[in-house]
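Archive record:
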Amino acid sequence: MTTNHSNPKYLVKLDQIKELNAFEKEQLKAVTDTFVFRTNDYYQSLIDWNDPNDPIRHIVMPEVAELEEFGKWDASDEASYTVMKGLEHKYTDTALLLVNNVCGAYCRFCFRKRLFTDDNDEVTNEVSGAVEYISQHPEINNVLLTGGDPLLMSTGKLEKIIQQVRDIDHVKIIRIGSKMPAFNPFRIINDPSLLEMLSRYSSAERKIYVMAHFNHAKEMTDVAVQGIMLLQKAGVTVFNQTPIIRGVNDSVEAIAELFSRMSFNGVTSYYLFICRPTAGNRPYVVPVEEAWEIFEGARHNLAGLAKHARLCMSHKTGKVEVVGKSGDHMIFRYHRAARLEDRGRIMIFPNNPNACWLDDYLQPAEMQEQLLAAGVAF
């Protein structure tokens, strides 16, 4: 079911969600006092309220278990790679610009939910300093605009940023991380000026990519597919990435269907992420080895064009790919590494079914010495 509204109304209070009863609203108030809540009536219309396991509900509606003690605000230590307000430079060839601190709605498992607190000051509205930094670092050929959601900004504001970045000769790729194609595809459909602007700055050898965040095939409504098609017609290359989330897509069938639907619409599945151990994320985390079993099970049911995704952790040291299982050991590899010495490094650890993050596999020094003596690499 989809709404007929072409201009969705944003909802920021539980009192606006008529499907919740008074007890539920009171019970969830402590959650929304801690972690911000925002959705819209289009996205709410995708929820089957008769199904307690509805995946869209789990994506956007708060849960009491979010208050369980777990994780930290900056689970990937982005602060250590921040070179100035709004600019991160973790990987040699890639810079990340935080240009907005608002999203079309808020995923309950967001790893940057710290940005949406009153005292956060990481996002910048003025990118001139960051643009100057990028211009002075010719090794940067790839700039990711993120936040928050850049597509929630007005087209005019977004164009000013894209224009400044595009004026840097050595920046060949501009990526826009956005869940608006899922949260509110009307942002794309109803604004021809956005499509015209993207078309103007996305050329044959200097592409603009939209990194969409579809978490479940149920988000692939007719209007969402239309939005994707319009982006593609504008010369934008669309990729998709998603974490694997408990209650949303933690099954072979859900991942296989999502990856298949993406490939049918000409969208490459980029990453399947392990959910980061961010504060509030306890109810959404799927252990690493269970995630790998689901990922591999899904891949067995997919044609080649739907098999591009890698299962990765965005660890503070880099993107760590979950390569596979061999007997009683798990194999990992640095797909992207912040440090030169980690690039391509293979790590092999004893199985740990309860591990939710790379840190859970790390052993005390004496245990590492024993494993190294037995021929196990780190």
Residues 138 and 170 are 6 Å apart (CA to CA). The mean pLDDT is 94.
